Automatic annotation (TrEMBL):
Keywords, alphabetical: Aminotransferase, Pyridoxal phosphate, Transferase
GO molecular function: pyridoxal phosphate binding; transaminase activity
The name this protein goes by in its record: Aminotransferase DegT
UniProt cross-references to CDD domains, sorted A to Z: AHBA_syn (cd00616)
Organism name: Methanobacterium bryantii
Length: 365
């Protein structure tokens, strides 16, 4: 099977983890601090606060932004559920705005009509590794005095108009889950230039302590371990190479897919670096699931990111959520992610293209 995702863990990561295990300092300690420093330097922010996952990073960022009961946060319905769940954790209300059908990211043209006097923040997602349209989002946030929290869980190293994502909003959250562009096993991080958010995030991730046994706010145990951070300090050195390989793989796929009937290759916006966390095609004529099955039978792993909008998930339906986001619903029925990860070989990509051609001949003709 050609896997849809596979982390690369080399000897150096293993050595770093072994050193941490032998040091006896295995909870949050000096490796976490080193990883935070390296990540902040890479993104270009003054601070980075590591957490136990991308989800807890989002939860902490939402709390730092002061979002609480009844506050509204504008976000996309076409993302992993953790994006919107982070707002629910704080007692807030995610408000879903439809996506741009080309980039699959939140459509800035539709944000303003969703703003009410309860709106506190915008939570855009850089889906699949492609930056959201941040110029427009920043302008709206400024006009309406809203905070921006970037969900950059899928976009380590993506660049929007010359700026790394993660350095554009008030805060940004990344995930280091094993499918992501770099991994720490489980893990997340918040990047920010704001000293107060940095201080609050550090308190909230560790029981709300200002110092040992001084609990100044309600916090959690959302700490990253030094074992995870040891993987991260090596992975961050590899990130550029991984991303370049993903981009090269994506270019190869696009070049070949463009001539295959029924399958639409991903759009890349002007003046951005898309880092292809996922290489996601659109499959026309209601044939997505048929193509998926064909590929899986031929040994090619695929994924559907995501098969339904967040407001169509049972959790949200039970909470009474409805929304009218036809582009997100259409995308949920048509998208299919193909393998693009840097561990794959030229032979793997040759096979993917030839099976896609075969599938198209059988399914679309
Ligand atoms: C867009 C998005 N947001 C948030 C998360 C949550 O990250 P984690 O799985 O590290 O908790 C993910 C990860 O799957 C994601 O893809």
């Amino acid at each position: 099977m050609i896997p849809i995702a596979k982390p690369f863990i080399g000897d150096e990561e293993i050595k770093e983890v072994e050193a941490v295990l032998r040091s006896g300092f295995i909870a949050q300690g000096p490796k976490v601090a080193e990883f935070e420093e390296k990540f902040a330097e890479y993104i270009g922010t003054r601070h980075a606060v590591a957490t136990s996952s991308g989800t807890t990073a989002l939860h902490v960022a939402i709390l730092c932004a002061g979002i609480g009961k009844g506050d509204e946060v504008i976000t996309t319905p076409f993302s992993f559920a953790a994006t919107a769940n982070s707002v629910l954790y704080a007692g807030g209300k995610p408000v879903f705005v439809d996506i741009d059908p080309k980039t699959y990211n939140i459509n800035p043209e539709k944000i303003e009509e969703a703003i009410t006097d309860k709106t506190k923040a915008i939570l855009p997602v850089h889906l699949y590794g492609q930056p959201a349209d941040m110029d427009q989002i920043c302008k709206i946030a400024e006009d309406h005095d809203l905070k921006i929290i970037e969900d950059a869980a899928q976009a380590h190293g993506a660049i929007y108009h010359g700026k790394k994502v993660g350095s554009i909003g008030d805060m940004a959250c990344f995930s280091f889950y094993p499918t992501k562009n770099i991994t720490t096993g489980e893990g997340g991080i918040i990047t920010t230039d704001d000293d107060a958010f940095d201080k609050d995030a550090r308190a909230i991730r560790a029981h709300g302590e200002s110092e040992r046994y001084e609990h100044v706010t309600l916090g959690y145990n959302f700490r990253m371990t030094d074992i995870a951070a040891a993987i991260g300090v090596v992975q961050i050195k590899r990130l550029e190479e991984f991303n370049e390989k993903r981009i090269e793989n994506a270019e190869y796929l696009t070049e070949h897919i463009n001539s295959i009937e029924g399958i639409e290759s991903p759009y890349v916006a002007e003046n951005v670096r898309h880092v292809f966390h996922q290489y996601t095609v659109r499959v026309e004529n209601g044939k997505r699931d048929e193509l998926k099955e064909f590929l899986n039978n031929e040994g090619i792993g695929t994924g559907v990111h995501y098969p339904r909008t967040i407001y169509n998930q049972k959790l949200y339906e039970d909470l009474g959520y409805t929304a009218d986001c036809p582009e997100a619903e259409k995308a949920a029925a048509e998208v299919l992610s193909l393998p693009v990860n840097p561990t794959l070989t030229a032979e793997d990509f040759g096979k993917i293209v030839s099976v896609l051609q075969d599938a198209s001949d059988k399914i679309f003709k």
